[in-house]
Amino acid sequence: MQTQLTKWIGIGVTAVALCACASLEPVQTAQKMIGQPESAVRTAFGTPTETYQLAGGTQRWIYSKQPMGHEVYAADFDSGGKLTGFRQMLTEKEIYEARPGVWTKHDVAERFGMPREPTQYYPLMKREAWSYRMYVAGYQQAHFNALFDDNGVLDRTMIVVDPLGGDHQSRK
Predict the structure, then answer these.
(1) Where is the signal peptide (predicted)?
(2) Residue 17 domain boundaries
(3) What pLDDT does residue 13 have?
(4) Which of these three, 88, 114, 139, is where a domain ends?
């Protein structure tokens, strides 16, 4: 009986440690899980906020920390359901790969998830704006904005650095 209890305690401690690592260092934790099945990723990171079916039977799970967090993580799986990659999507590198005039709202959502901030519409420009909180240079708070024309095609992207570091309305 004692060995069975010790075994269950060991499993519980391992699960808690894995969850703690997953929340503190998600990319590093997931990189060690490459090749693992979807069930292992779900155990470590929980239910994704969104899922997308990609080309060739692959899948992307989005783990968004928006609107107050500054991260959106993507877990990519091959057609067999094995983890092939896990990365933070709100980086300048990822944003600069966006293709104005080509990408649609769906393409932006597949890459960065749906916005968790309220969308804005600018009638004089005839543009809808999606906004995501992010960090630039590793520590500076900023907003990534994707602007779409009335046909839902990406018109432009912008990174706007917030010199005061966040939502000014919450400081009043």
Answers:
(1) 1-22
(2) 2-88
(3) 45
(4) 88
